[in-house]
Design goal:
The protein is α+β, with helices and mostly antiparallel strands. The protein contains 7 helices and 9 strands. Strands 1, 2, 3, 4, 5, 6, 7, 8 and 9 form a 9-stranded antiparallel β-sheet that branches. Helix 3 packs across helix 5 and helix 4 packs antiparallel against helix 5.
């Protein structure tokens, strides 16, 4: 019996190691190698990335968007043969992936996440099928982090207020036209209550662990909850820092091209 259990344990460990190894990829770039591991709790993004790598999709692409203390981004097929100073980033593979935003997956330094179109045209937060970025981020002071969270929540409150107000636009115009200020005040009260309830579902509240991460390791807290994080760098953050520190033009494209040679 003990021998049988021992064999089962060995088989389980081999399977676990194989699964971890299958999810690890080496991104060979002209600036050095970056090894990344994909998460299993974002299977749509994981499987899409695996397919693109198997197809050789990223070979020859540039990191076309590089911002120090923020991210390095790739995924535009036009970048393969881009002339110098050509503006990049508008093209991708042509399909979207449903969001897989997990509460525990935050934008800490070194994570891999999917880029996407803005909320105005993409309220579902669906990801680009090919664009991804690696977070360099920055380390925040505790007071600075609190201020940032306050600003994020203020912007979210304003966005929700404008959205709800637009839904009641006809009633507002009607009450203003007849100067029915009592009804207008009552409607404003209802709008405020509705916005308050909606904000509870979107309000950013950092856990103690998130605060620790952003004030020690660093990252980009204001992207949390709105972009899919689907992997992390396991080695080669020095290469990410090197790329992020390169001189760029006014469109955040490195003046010296950084090209993906191969992902394997």
């Amino acid at each position: 019996m003990k021998r049988f259990l021992g064999i089962l344990f060995i088989v389980f460990m081999l399977a676990s190691c194989r699964e971890r190894e299958e999810n690890v990829f080496t991104v060979e770039t002209s600036a050095g190698n970056i090894r990344i591991r994909l998460y299993n709790d974002t299977p749509l993004h994981r499987d899409n990335f695996v397919k693109l790598v198997q197809d050789g999709y990223y070979e020859g692409m540039l990191f076309h968007r590089v911002i120090s203390d923020f991210v390095i981004q790739t995924g535009d097929p036009d970048s393969r043969n881009a002339r110098p100073q050509m503006v990049l980033g508008a093209n991708d593979i042509g399909y979207k992936i449903d969001a897989e935003i997990r509460p525990g997956r935050i934008h800490r330094r070194g994570v891999v996440a999917a880029a996407r179109e803005g909320d105005d045209v993409n309220p579902e937060h669906r990801s680009s099928g090919s664009h991804f970025y690696i977070v360099q981020g920055k380390v925040y002071r505790p007071g600075e982090l609190d201020t940032l969270v306050g600003q994020i929540n203020a912007r979210r409150h304003q966005r929700l207020f404008e959205k709800v107000k637009k839904e009641h636009e006809a009633a507002i115009r009607k009450y203003e036209a007849v100067k029915d200020y009592d009804s207008l005040m009552e409607l404003n009260r209802k709008i405020s209550e509705q916005v308050g309830k909606l904000l509870q579902g979107e309000k950013m509240v950092l856990t103690d662990e998130q605060k620790r991460v952003y004030t020690t390791e660093g990252g980009i807290p204001f992207l949390d909850g709105t972009y899919t994080v689907f992997g992390e760098v396991v080695s080669g953050m020095d290469v990410v820092d090197k790329i992020a520190g390169m001189k760029t033009d006014e469109n955040n494209r490195p003046e010296k091209d950084v090209r993906i040679i191969k992902i394997k």
